[in-house]
């Protein structure tokens, strides 16, 4: 006779197989109402349950934008970062793929999703995966950082921006606009 744990593992794997069948099957799983129960299984104590739940959630985020939004509404971004430090490479890769799919789906809102990932501790863990020995994981982590967490939107010091001249060149004057302070000893 199977234990409750084994039944849970088998059930979640069944959901992962169903969500692997395309958008119509993903939608049927969503319509069944199980996604709000599925996402929290990403933090289950049993690795077999986590793995099956991750596979199902990973499949859902390959669906339509609306289907991906369902797992976002279930707070999936708070669960993903902890899985980025999992010792199994396959789990790291599936989480990175899931994050990338979510960021792609977000379109103009990708920076908002990136902020949430950062607030949940995900950025540091993605950065650490850039040192991973598995080349696929390294490349995927690098790509996510490069595309969604690069310094493009970091506030720059306007006094350090070079002045454009008429000839199409720039005037780099490191002393321009510097505020000097007198030291009193």
Structure description:
- This protein is 59% helix and 2% strand.
- The protein is an all-alpha fold and 185 residues long.
- It folds into 2 domains: 1-74, Leucine-rich Repeat Variant, CATH 1.25.10; 76-151, Leucine-rich Repeat Variant.
- Strands 1-2 form a two-stranded antiparallel ribbon.
- A hairpin with a 5-residue loop joins strand 1 (163-164) and strand 2.
- The radius of gyration is 22 Å and the shape is globular.
- The N and C termini lie far apart (82 Å).
- ARM repeats lie at residues 33-71.
- Keywords: Protein transport, Transport.
Number of DSSP E strands: 2
Helix and strand content put the structural class at: mainly alpha
Overall CATH architecture of the largest domain: Alpha Horseshoe
- Helix count? 10
Q: Average pLDDT value?
A: 86
- Largest sheet, spatial ordering of strands: 1-2
**Total discrete domains:** 2
- What Rg do the Cα atoms give? 22 Å
Keywords: Protein transport, Transport
Family: Belongs to the importin alpha family.
ARM repeats: 33-71
Protein name: Importin subunit alpha-4
Structural key phrases:
Leucine-rich Repeat Variant, 10 helices, 2 domains, two-stranded antiparallel ribbon, mainly alpha, 185 residues, globular, disordered C terminus
Write the layout of secondary structure elements.
Layout: H1 4-19, H2 23-31, H3 35-38, H4 47-60, H5 65-73, H6 76-83, H7 89-106, H8 110-119, H9 122-129, H10 135-148, E1 163-164, E2 170-171
Antiparallel strand pairs: 1-2
Helix pairs in contact: 1-4, 4-7, 6-7, 7-8, 7-10, 9-10
Short précis:
With 185 residues, the protein is an all-alpha fold. The chain has helices spanning 4-19, 23-31, 35-38, 47-60, 65-73, 76-83, 89-106, 110-119, 122-129, 135-148; strands at 163-164, 170-171.
């Amino acid at each position: 006779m199977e234990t409750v744990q084994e039944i849970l593992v088998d059930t979640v794997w069944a959901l992962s197989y169903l969500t692997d069948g395309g958008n119509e099957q993903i939608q049927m799983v969503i319509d069944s109402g199980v996604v709000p129960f599925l996402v929290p299984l990403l933090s289950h104590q049993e690795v077999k349950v986590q793995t099956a739940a991750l596979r199902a959630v990973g499949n859902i985020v390959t669906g339509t934008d609306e289907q991906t939004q369902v797992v976002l509404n279930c707070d999936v971004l708070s669960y993903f970062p902890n899985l980025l430090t999992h010792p199994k490479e396959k789990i790291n890769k599936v989480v990175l793929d899931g994050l990338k799919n979510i960021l792609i789906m977000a379109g103009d809102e990708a920076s908002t999703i990136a902020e949430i990932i950062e607030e949940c501790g995900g950025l540091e863990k993605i950065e650490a995966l850039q040192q991973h020995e598995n080349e696929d994981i390294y490349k995927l982590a690098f790509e996510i950082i490069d595309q969604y967490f690069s310094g493009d939107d970091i506030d720059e010091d306007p006094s350090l921006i070079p002045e454009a001249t008429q000839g199409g060149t720039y005037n780099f004057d490191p002393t321009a606009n510097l505020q000097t302070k007198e030291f009193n000893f």
